[in-house]
Amino acid sequence: MEVVYWEGQRLFLLDQTKLPHQTTYVACSRYQEVAEAIYSLKVRGAPAIGVAAAYGYALAAFNYRADPGLPLEQFLDQAERELLATRPTAVNLRWALERMRDAYLNIQEKSLDNIRSVLLEAALAIHNRERKLEEKMADFGASLVPPEANILTYCNTGALATAGWGTALGVIRAAHNQGKSIKTFVPETRPVLQGARLTAWELHDAGIPFTLITDNMLGYVFLHEGIDLVLVGADRIVANGDFANKIGTYGLAVLANYHNCPFYVVAPSSTIDLDLEEGKEIPIEMRDPREVRELGGQLVSVKNCAVLNPAFDVTPHHLVTAVITEKGVLKPPLEKSIRRSFDEEGVQR
Ligand SMILES: CSC[C@H]1O[C@H](OP(=O)(O)O)[C@H](O)[C@@H]1O
Fold first, then answer.
1. Do 305 and 290 fall within a single domain?
2. Which keywords are on file for this protein (predicted)?
3. Can you give the pLDDT at residue 163?
4. Where residue 326 sits, what CATH number does that domain have?
């Protein structure tokens, strides 16, 4: 099933807010609709929002109508700003939009038709690049999974969150396909339930055994079920290996460390931000309080009560066993192995 696809000058997005009960698509004919879909989590997941934003930038070129008051370049700059402003934490958004802007600036033949064609090609190239490297990354990760393993993952890091295969969930999918006997524990992941609604849906669809748990059962499963490894995704990994991921990841990392359980981060190089040295510099998205006060649109607490709703937290690099990217398994000292993975051939920033 396609999560994001382009057809006839429109971008189609699988509406993830309707899953698992409805499989419906949002058809975006304007870049502003793509921005709204990213902010409202109709499309979500660091790599997926980068891919969607790339198409959104290309869509802006199709939206543009010659206007002496607003040249195309300024219109595209406006689209880039609006798309970038949707969600501040996942660096993939900035990574994809920078590549789209570079694609535009490198166009020699500046007819509107050619610009539209080149930008659409650039967005498709980003989509295909991410999809290809996710499968490679999954194989690196699957090599770390024992023949029999209890795995704890978090949030949703599958096809829905990426360009098609997944990051941490892609490793689980690859290990299952290799015949390994794995049991996956899936925390619901409050407040918007990416685990219960999306990861459970993906694993069920793939025929991969899993057990749904509530977020307050993490300690229990370490103690009573025994966890062999933890696999999580990331929204931004910085130069020293600190990383931002769905709220609750930090607590999971502390528990894994306490139980001497390997803790792996799985993410493509488009999630790595070498411009930041430490995790405390990562901007953390604070979302609508109604996401916490309500469940399925029903108030579950006191009306208009005070709420804290950070969408992400930061895990320090010393709790990370390794970072798995398309370049391989990056082991501590992470600052050194992350930089080396960029210095080697071809990892594009
Ligand atoms: C494969 S990265 C997915 C990453 O994105 C999720 O956040 P959100 O659902 O808010 O976009 C979560 O942090 C996942 O680890």
1. yes
2. Amino-acid biosynthesis, Isomerase, Methionine biosynthesis
3. 77
4. 3.40.50.10470
285 inside domain: yes
Predicted model pTM: 0.96
Cα angle, residue 211 at apex, residues 202 and 312 outer, rounded to 5°: 70
245 lines ligand 1 (CB under 6 A): yes
CA-wise closest residue to 161 among 232, 66, 77: 232
Structure confidence at residue 347 (pLDDT):
45
Separation between Cα atoms, residue 329 and residue 134, nearest integer Å? 13
Q: Does the C-beta of 44 come closer than 6 Å to ligand 1?
A: yes
Looking at ligand 1, which atom is closest to the CA of residue 233?
15
Give yes or no for residue 86 CB within 6 A of ligand 1. Answer: no
Closest ligand 1 atom number to CA of residue 266: 1
313 is catalytic: no
CB count, 10 Å around CB of 242?
A: 24
Residue 348 lies in a domain: no
Q: What is the mean pLDDT of the chain?
A: 96
What total of structural domains would you count in the chain? 2
Summarised one tens digit per residue, pLDDT across range 321-333 is 999 999 999 999 9
pLDDT > 90 fraction of the chain, expressed in percent and rounded = 94
Predicted confidence at residue 38, as pLDDT, reads 98
Burial 257-268 (b: 16+ CB within 10 A, else e): beeebebbbbbb
172 and 115, same structural domain? no
Among protein residues, the one with the nearest Cα to ligand 1's atom 6 is: 45
pLDDT at 345: 56
- Please measure the distance between the N-terminal and C-terminal CA atoms of the chain and give it in whole angstroms: 29
Specify burial of residue 245 (Cβ count, 10 A radius: 0-12, 13-18, 19+).
buried
Give dist(CA 143, CA 280) in Å, integer.
32
CATH code, domain with 16: 1.20.120.420
Residue type, 322: A
Mutation to probe ligand 1, out of 16, 236, 246 (largest number of atoms < 8 A from CB)? 246
CA of 116 to the centre of ligand 1 (A): 30
